[in-house]
Specification:
mainly alpha; 4 helices
Amino acid sequence: MTDPSKIKPSHTQRAAFVYIRQSTPGQVEHNRELPPVKRVVRNPIAERARPARVSVEECPLRGSLGDLQPLEFVQVRRSPEEALFNSLLEQHHYI
């Protein structure tokens, strides 16, 4: 609660505006509740098990990006590397 000693006369003399929204009789009469849920859609991504933690070397690399050439980007979906990718994403992604 607010300490009453902090309320000064200048505070209580200020005009205050309060907005109150009231439904019209028509809004009240014609307001419809949502129908019950017919079915719940599963989210398999949210329900999947967490991937096993994979240990990898975490020493930072020193040097320029040019020293790492050539870089290759490959799709890992449905490949043997997918488990590694999922584990690293789980461990290091902030979301």
